[in-house]
Design a protein that fits this description.
single chain; 254 residues; alpha/beta; D-Maltodextrin-Binding Protein, domain 2; 2 domains; five-stranded mixed beta sheet; 11 helices; elongated; disordered N terminus
Length: 254
Amino acid sequence: MKKIVIYLLYLSVFHSFSLCADEVNVAVASNFKYTLEKLAADFKVKTGHDLVISSASTGKLFAQIIHGAPYHIFLSADERRADLLIDKHRAREENSQVYALGKLVLLSNLKPRHDCKEVLYSRRIKHLAIANPKIAPYGAAAEQVLTKLGLWQQLKPRLVIAENIAQASLFVVTGNAEAGFVASSVLAGAKRQSMDVIDAGCVWEVPTDMYLPIKQKMVILDKAETNPAARDFFQYMQSGEAKSIIQAAGYDVL
């Protein structure tokens, strides 16, 4: 009898979502795209709603939103751009939340003698890939790490500036850069795809006290306040199921 009651409760919750099944246009920072695709599949099962995903660097998506792009929800790779939308009256504080904490790693296809961090001091490194610090939060974090190590000016001529963190990791994976600072989540996704070059090199998980916290924040844009599917997704992102998927993808959660 208890199992039947639980099943009926589940059906009633699912039915309440499905009655208003709709689409949500989501702008997502490139580092979170793979994870959002996993979340979208789970969200579809639970609610019947579809996510229409657009991915780019946080700075580029922010500019698109300012110029009227028809997004309902913005998943930024930082807090600043989400907060700027609130300041510009494109979203409200109560419709925002930190959905993930990003982690930075150094990925290299060089094999060091001891630990991966020493690659940064090696003459063998001719190209070091980072996301553009001016528009990508992970790029800004990489600059902070190199500055703290006293290597920013020394390595600046060897930097390969990528448009976003996904492109930075691609430079390393394809061998166009000997090393690069990438998101832990991007690395986790690459490993799932069995990219051998990663296994042949090394990884340094950068201590989080070497860069400012990468608090990735989402907002419901004002134009979507009356969209029930957008509201459902916002609530779903606070659920235990969503947080488990996010953690499995290489992030921390609050």
